[in-house]
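Per your request, structure below.
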């Protein structure tokens, strides 16, 4: 029997801020809901009190992952050296957060702005982005931190929208601690299905976001989770699976606007998260039993 995947939940299920009170609410709720880790968004790495966060994680026996999306003024997927340097600095600051809270993972839309572009990318922009990610990955490797590229739908980046684009970009970066971060919400928009692209990732898949087609309760949208869980078992995926869901009930102004979270899909984060945890754990167990049988 394969080992159970570590299960995580994104902090935006609990709170949009990261004051000590917000951190305590998010971390204690994550532990109470039975998850192994919390994914902490570091869009503004400077607002995270590293020592305070680490102490609270320790107190609740939780691991952390760190994620972010770059902004238009920190866009490394660019031909403007000022933007590239600003993005490089933001990523290095986010890496310092990951190192400080002892997170083994730093990922997200770190290869471009997390924004709707009004133009296609250019080969020069793509190479500039890959050069910064290469430097980030080499720095991250010193602390055994994995760097994940979360390819997203066309409305949130013009650079990496599919698994194939992400694998090609990884070849350019060419660092062993860089992995594919697959989010089924985005795949649902851009891929032909789930099984084939996940099989294409194979052992280069390093982090998974599970979210519904409308980013609300799992099972209430149109995503074929049997296909998703089946494919993850098929490639022997043993990495982290993190639940992501967003509602206008919990807002981080920068984050929620970038992701176009305008509707109130849920109000009770604990009910949502405990349901999601069981949904993912049961789905993976069922897929494993099916493959074994
Ligand atoms: Mn995601």
């Amino acid at each position: 029997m394969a080992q159970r995947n570590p299960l995580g939940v994104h902090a935006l299920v609990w709170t949009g801020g990261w004051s000590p009170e917000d951190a305590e609410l998010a971390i204690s709720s994550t532990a109470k809901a039975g998850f192994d880790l919390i994914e902490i968004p570091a869009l503004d790495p400077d607002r995270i009190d590293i020592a305070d966060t680490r102490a609270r994680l320790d107190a609740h026996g939780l691991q952390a992952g760190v994620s972010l999306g770059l902004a238009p003024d920190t866009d490394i997927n660019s031909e403007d050296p000022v933007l590239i340097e600003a993005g490089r600095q933001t990523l290095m600051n986010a890496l310092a957060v990951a190192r400080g809270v002892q997170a083994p993972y730093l990922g997200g839309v770190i290869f471009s702005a997390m924004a709707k572009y009004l133009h296609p990318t250019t080969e020069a922009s793509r190479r500039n982005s890959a050069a910064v990610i290469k430097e980030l990955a080499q720095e991250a490797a010193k602390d055994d931190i994995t760097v994940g590229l979360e390819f997203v739908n066309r409305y949130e980046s013009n650079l990496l929208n599919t698994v194939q684009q992400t694998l090609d970009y990884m070849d350019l970066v060419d660092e062993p601690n860089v992995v594919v971060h697959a989010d089924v919400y985005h795949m649902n928009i851009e891929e032909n299905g789930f099984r084939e692209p996940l099989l294409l990732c194979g052992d280069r898949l390093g982090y998974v976001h599970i979210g519904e087609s409308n980013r609300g309760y799992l099972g209430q949208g149109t995503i074929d989770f049997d296909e998703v869980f089946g494919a993850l078992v098929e490639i022997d995926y043993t990495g982290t699976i993190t639940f992501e869901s967003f509602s206008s009930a919990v807002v981080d102004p920068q984050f929620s606007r970038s992701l176009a979270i305008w509707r109130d899909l849920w109000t009770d984060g604990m009910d949502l998260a405990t349901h999601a945890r069981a949904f993912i754990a049961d789905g993976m167990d069922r897929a494993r039993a099916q493959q074994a049988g």
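The radius of gyration is 18 Å.

Regards,
D.
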